[in-house]
Design brief:
This protein has 461 residues and is α/β, with parallel strands linked by helices. It has three domains: 60 residues; 102 residues, 2-Layer Sandwich (Alpha-Beta Plaits); 223 residues, Rossmann fold, CATH 3.40.50. It is 37% helix and 17% strand. It has 13 helices and 13 strands. Strands 5-13-12-8-11-9-10 form a seven-stranded parallel sheet, with helices on both faces. The protein is rod-shaped.
Length: 461
């Protein structure tokens, strides 16, 4: 029972995740139903009444509701081959014999009256066909060639009007029916295509795939040109909840202490940076590499957004886009970096450079270096980029499988880089997991003495 519940929950997640696909199929179903109603308009019906001789009509002997045998026989004759064949030449617009046979119906509202109802494509055809069949029947049963003997029948009421469903109502009904069929087909298609999808979407799945916790999961921009990258680097500002996640991620990585960078405002309006609150390395700087896959273009924005956020917190930050295993993955970002050495909006705290090889020019006041690195998804190999003190893997929800993430972690470890966390881009809106968020270490506090001695606590007069 639990397994069935899990399968049903996962199936619902797949359908919600691909609701656009399901919506497209539903829209197509609605359009198909409406088009069918327009291209095949409803058939209209018209009815004529024929009176039979009362003397030949035999009333049933019992009250069981059984039909009058004579009238029942005349109903059969009204829809017979000879009657319909004689009616075909008199129908305008013309109706083929087979179509007429399928659209005619004889009934008996009373023992000595039969009704003839014919469906037509329009009112004119329905009325013409009904009157033609009624006249053909009267002529046939009144002739010597009648198979049931001569019967003096006469037309009681000719077909004068045709009725049928409203075209608008029929279109609405068929559109709704097409929509319901579209929902069913869309759900089946979504489950059939994506049920065996091995890409990871939930934070816990991503963290468990390589045994490394998710430090933050934030929505990212999707720049497609150098101009879009420049706008992101200049104007990115996360929401409060995502700002807190990025702040916690920096603390987890030891990039900055609880107070982050800004400690106070100088007389000239600029902020000073407290280096003692950040985790320092040999050169007095913190450095971080954000490693992503070439097939995951959305995760590329994680590093730049983290750098912009760090600069906004008062940390002098250098964003480095170095040589990549797949140069095409960062081509537009490198172009933006070449034309944007720093962002004035961040008070000069964010500097940007496109690194190729050799020595990296670092300003003396730089406290944090963030390096963007991209590896090939199929055959990952760590690019010859700047060495950093920490490495994280950036991945979008639903963009990579466990095997791809493991390969990226392996090549980083083989290059002497320790992967300490994961950053998730564009998390799934249905994901309620945490990604094994690590607990922050409690700050060390000095133990207060239990008893104070040698201090006067009372004043005597």
């Amino acid at each position: 029972m639990n397994q069935q519940a899990l399968d049903l929950q996962r199936s619902m997640q797949i359908v919600r995740r691909h609701k656009i696909l399901v919506g497209i199929v539903v829209a197509l179903g609605i359009l198909a139903g409406a088009a069918y109603a327009v291209l095949k308009p409803p058939m209209l019906t018209s009815t004529a009444l024929i009176a039979l001789p009362v003397s030949q009509s035999v009333q049933p002997a019992t009250s069981t509701g059984a039909p009058d045998p004579f009238t029942a026989t005349q109903e059969v004759v009204a829809g017979s081959y000879h009657v319909l064949l004689g009616a075909v030449p008199n129908i305008h617009p013309a109706m083929p014999f087979n179509e007429l046979r399928n659209n005619v119906e004889a009934g008996s509202p009373s023992p000595n009256i039969i009704s003839i109802t014919v469906k037509g494509k329009n009112a004119t055809q329905a009325e013409s066909a009904t009157n033609a069949v009624a006249n053909s029947y009267i002529s046939y049963v009144g002739s010597p060639r009648s198979a049931v003997g001569r019967v003096r029948a006469h037309l009681l009421a000719s077909a004068s009007s045709a009725t049928g469903p409203s075209p608008i109502e029929r279109m609405i009904i068929y559109a709704l029916l097409g929509g319901l069929i579209g929902v069913l087909i869309g759900v089946i298609v979504a489950l059939a295509i994506f049920r065996n999808d091995r890409r990871l979407r939930q934070r816990d799945e991503i963290a468990n795939s390589i045994g490394i916790p998710v430090l933050a999961s934030v929505p990212v921009g999707h720049p497609s040109s150098a101009r879009d990258w420049a706008k992101l680097l200049e104007n990115y500002k996360p929401a409060a909840v995502h700002s807190w996640q990025l702040r916690s991620a920096l603390q987890q990585l030891g990039m900055a202490g609880p107070g982050l960078g800004r400690t106070g405002q100088n007389g000239n309006g600029s902020f000073s940076y407290d280096y003692h609150r950040a985790a320092m390395y040999d050169d007095g700087r913190s450095s971080l590499a954000v490693l992503s896959l070439s097939s995951d273009s959305d995760a590329l924005a994680l590093g730049p957004q983290l750098a912009v956020f760090a600069a906004a917190q008062g940390i002098p930050t250098l964003l480095v886009v170095g040589p990549q295993q797949d140069a095409a993955a960062t081509a537009t970002l490198r172009t933006a970096c070449s034309g944007l050495s720093e962002t004035p909006e961040r008070d000069g705290l964010l500097r940007i450079t496109a690194y190729d090889e050799g020595d990296l020019d670092i300003e003396a006041d730089t406290a944090l270096i963030i390096v963007v690195a991209v590896v090939d998804s199929r055959a990952p190999k760590m690019p010859d980029t700047v060495r950093t003190s920490a490495t994280v893997i950036g991945v979008s929800a639903g963009a990579a499988s466990a095997e791809q993430l493991a390969r990226a972690a392996v090549v980083a470890a083989a290059d002497g880089r320790e992967v300490t966390g994961i950053l998730v881009a564009d998390p799934d809106e249905d994901d309620q997991t945490t990604g094994r968020i690590p607990h922050l270490a409690r700050p060390v506090r000095r133990r207060m003495p239990n008893r104070l001695r040698g201090i006067v606590t009372e004043i005597r007069r």
